[in-house]
Amino acid sequence: MSINIPTSPPVGTGTALAESSAEIEGLVEKKIEGKSPWVLAWRRLRRDRAAMIALGGIIFIVALAVFAPVVAAITGHGNLQQFRTTGLDATGTPVGPNGTFWFGTDDQGRDLLVRVAYGARVSLFVGVVATAVTVVGGTVIGLAAGYFGKIVDTILARFMDWLLAVPFLLFALSLFSVVQTHPIGPIKPGLPIVIIVLGFFGWASVGRLVRGQVLSIREKEYIEAARALGAGPWRIMFIDILPNLLAPLIVYSTLLIPVTIVGEATLSFLGVGVEPPTADWGQMIGSSSAIFLYGPWWYLVFPSAALLFTTLAFNLFGDGVRDAFDPRGALGL
Amino acid sequence: MRSDEIVAAQADTETGPVEVLLKVQNLVKYFPVSSAKLINRQRDYVHAVDDVSLEVRAGETLGLVGETGCGKSTLARCIARLHDVTSGSIIFDGIDITRYSAHRMRPFRREIQMIFQDPYGSLNPRRRVGSIIGDPFAIHRTASGAERKRRVQELMEMVGLNPEHYNRFPAEFSGGQRQRIGVARALAFTPKLIICDEPVSALDVSIQAQILNLLSDLQKEFGLTYIFIAHDLSVVRHVSDRVAVMYLGKIVEEARSEQMWTSPRHPYTDALLSAVPLPDPEHAGQRERILLAGDVPSPINPPSGCRFHPRCPKARQACVETEPDLVSRLGDGAEHVAACHFPVEDGEDISLSRPTIAAEERVVESGLIAGS
Fold first, then answer.
1. Nearest to residue A264, comparing CAs of A77, A149, A124, A135?
2. Which of A83, A306, A331, B223 could be A109's S-S partner, Cβ–Cβ 3.0 to 4.6 Å?
3. Is residue B314 part of a domain?
4. What's the Cα-to-Cα distance from B177 to each of A308, B143, B156, B181, B204, rounded to whole Å?
5. Radius of gyration over alpha carbons of chain B, in Å?
6. For residues B94, B98, B100 and B105, what is the CA-based torsion angle, rounded to 10 degrees?
């Protein structure tokens, strides 16, 4: 903990000295409140230029998603509005970027810029919500497996191993082809199922990470101290162990968001994710792949660029967060 | 040699009628270890604590010494009910708590507290000191909010910490200050029994004295009872009323502190005492150090008879064959018991003794040393 005492003592009158010592006391007084590891990590993060630029990129994408209706208002084109006369040429091909349609139009004659902005909503929503589901589920299950041990651990750890061995994409495709024709109760195509599938296949890796950490933390003397005080398992798991896991979990979550966004785009690209006509990057890339060889490159390029930009920003920011929380690489993430 | 009657009478006047706070009877704790073999695997057990009985009287300090791996920490954790015991019983304040469930143990958690060895490992690095010391109040829901803060700051002041450091993290304190935090946490409900598991062995010598003085001041002020575990004999001598010496999961000798120092009966105790550094180099040069052969044998498969026989300079055939009882020897009072067939007499120099048992009995299977 560094105390910001001026290195060269001021030479001068007695009053100046007295003033400076009062100043030092003031500084020392302020330092009595210990700086939490969060504050220290945030300071390191703020000094990381790449991470700060990436954070700017994330803020830009979030703003684009939030203000998508504003983009629609500025261009005067609705999200789902089809411009069959101005947006498509005589042969029914989309028109390229021009003064009216800045990003061009898609195969239905809709404004691609507005669609890309609205697509950011789906991507970010799924990215954040599915990551949250994954991390919360994995944390709770990993904590239980690591802390209770024995039979609980055996069952949960084997289940995680099994889940990690299941080919995610094959399973997801089969599930969707089944529910498309035969909805199983609430499981039918749409946003919720995307989140459920991504969460279901994602939590095991978080669970394994958490379990490993818990196994080592569980043996610490402060856990014994808590037990000697009469703390129950829930208190120990969530008050004594969990705070020690927050740093790796935050790092993991930031790096998981871009993975989830790409996962959602993949599912939508394959036609099993978000249902049309909702604007979605993966789905746009999917539809464009059929026609882009015939000219409309913009239909492929702009959604892809948006996806690339978003995942790149999250990944760079995640790297910065990792370096900030774990300057020595001790977490092994 | 004193006569039995005199010693017995002395013992009576010394102790008087005292209340027994804790009684441990035939306590056994085995830890299962599986062998590396996949097929034909057999269960082995580390005999961490093997048939230990002891009593702790209200207001006294019982010192527990022994080398690393002898089971003293395991014994402490069994008494604090952090480990389930294999057999035997723990009777605290007249109540048998050996098999109490976590729920029924709760009220006893306020009466039995522990101070841990590692001042770095025993405080959660991610929590502020105020919340660590306030844990007992939070867990037992006795105080919250401003009331909890006030009581925590009282405790901090009591153990010599600046109450304004309430919001600091453990990393911002020195080893000695951290140990004071551990003491404050243990003191929250002024427990009847505090088990100190090597509370000063991780500290500087100058800091050790401060913590020991703090512990003894608190004992005087609140009438606390301590079980004080250490491997540093000079520390144990300084703080203890009575001392028990452990070797390989068993108590080999138990006596009042001064008796233990003037007339150790068990050769192991004698050897331990001869290893205590003396401040005066001339004295130290004159003294005979008793060097023990070999390592501590494996607690998975402890030696037959007296467990100390493979290393004992006085070992005889009887030591290999029969296990000695922990009883008073050579006319000592009931207060002073030793588990040795051939106890050390006053003034005897066992560094001159040679064992008469067969050489293969002295081969020590040096084994796994369980955590201290």
1. A124
2. A83
3. yes
4. 52, 24, 10, 6, 12
5. 22
6. 70
CB pairs under 8 A between A and B: 73
> CA dist B305 to A68, A156, B251, B309, B354, Å?
85, 46, 14, 8, 18
Domain definitions of chain A by residue range: 1-34, 49-325
Report whether B253 contacts B264 (CB < 8 A): yes
Name the domain count of chain B.
1
Topology, domain A49-325: MetI-like fold (1.10.3720)
- Residue of A193, A205, A214 whose CA lies nearest to A165: A205
- Whether ipTM exceeds 0.85: no
| Cα nearest neighbour of A2 on chain B | B172
Beta-bridge partners for B89? B25
Point out the residue among B116, B140, B169 whose CB comes nearest to the CB of A225. B116
Tokens coding B275: 């290893």
CATH number assigned to the domain comprising residue B352: 3.40.50.300
Token duo for residue B184: 């404050």
Report CB contact under 8 Å: B114, A225.
yes
pTM score: 0.77
Residues of B in contact with A228 (CB under 8 A): 80, 82, 109, 112-114
Q: Would you write out chain B's pLDDT as a tens digit for each of its 372 residues? A: 444 444 444 444 444 456 889 999 999 999 888 666 566 666 788 889 989 999 999 999 999 998 888 888 899 999 999 998 999 999 999 899 998 888 889 889 999 999 998 888 899 988 899 999 999 999 988 888 899 999 999 999 999 999 999 888 888 898 899 999 999 999 998 999 999 998 888 888 888 989 999 999 999 999 999 999 988 888 888 889 999 999 999 999 999 998 888 889 999 998 888 887 777 777 766 766 777 777 788 888 888 889 898 888 888 888 888 899 888 888 788 889 999 999 888 878 877 777 777 777 776 555 544 443
**Closest to B339 measured CA to CA, from B361, B296, B300, B309:** B309
Q: Which residues of A touch B165 (CB under 8 A)?
A: 32, 34
